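Researcher: Predict the fold of Helix-turn-helix domain-containing protein.
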Amino acid sequence: MQAADLSRLAQEKPLRVLLIHAGEPDALSWAGLYQPLRLAAKLLGPERLHVDVRSPDKFPTDTQRHWHVVLLVADEAQAALKPGNLRSVVARCRSAQFWGGVGAGVLWLADAGVLRGVRTALPWALYPDVDVNDEHTMFTPNLFEIDGPHLTCCGGAASIDFALTLVESIYGAGVQAQIKEILCIDRVRGKDERQRVALQARFGALQPKLTEAVSLMEANIEEPLSTDDIANLVGISRRQLERLFKQYLGSLPSRYYLELRLKRARQLLQSTNNSIVQVGLMCGFSSGSHFSTAFGALFGNTPREERQRKLSGPT
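Model: Structure tokens for Helix-turn-helix domain-containing protein follow.
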């Protein structure tokens, strides 16, 4: 799917966001999601943003009310407490322009079969509860995913990054900056950043060589290792390594490694004052032209444009 154009939601006045809270009132996933959105609504005013909160049993009969964004939220600890009226909850979610889940809400939507073919951020602790090798699933180890109209987040502390990313995507960097200042947040993690133990949880027991190879890549961003070096260090042949990456990560080791370095470069461009040349060198690119070309091929803009976009913010 193509990346969602969330910015068009800013034209809705008011933009109505519904959070279906199926977890504990003080759960981290809930607090991390709700507080930034509540502050955004306060800053923007009710004529621009309205955030509704419902428990799963409080809204099915309210068929006349329309929401533009609907998210089903529950901490991973509540995974076994699936709402009894899940079918109507899912129908309500899917009636919105953008919809999805946070934490255990992602698992419930996946169980309902409505996330097939969608890049989905599932909490690593819930991987044992699903068949991650099912051909219809596209579970990723990332903090959150925005795939077309589908919004998913692994929950926990990542809910804050997810909520702040939604705010910036819709209302711009200025509104996000005000909320960051109120919440004393220095940096918002991007959707491509990984849950730190996701790969271990997903493959560690069955594919320790794959997990070890990825760990080597993550530890050697500035001075990249060759595919042969990585294969030798983990004790398998290059062909075996390539087969593991292709089967479980859908990519060749060299491509996966390149994207890992480029995603790190984008994080540095967004969150540091290092020059573009310095960022390239820190991520293993000795040639500025190679860095710019590879960056543009993956993200659709140059490192300079990425830096300028963060400096100026969306209009």
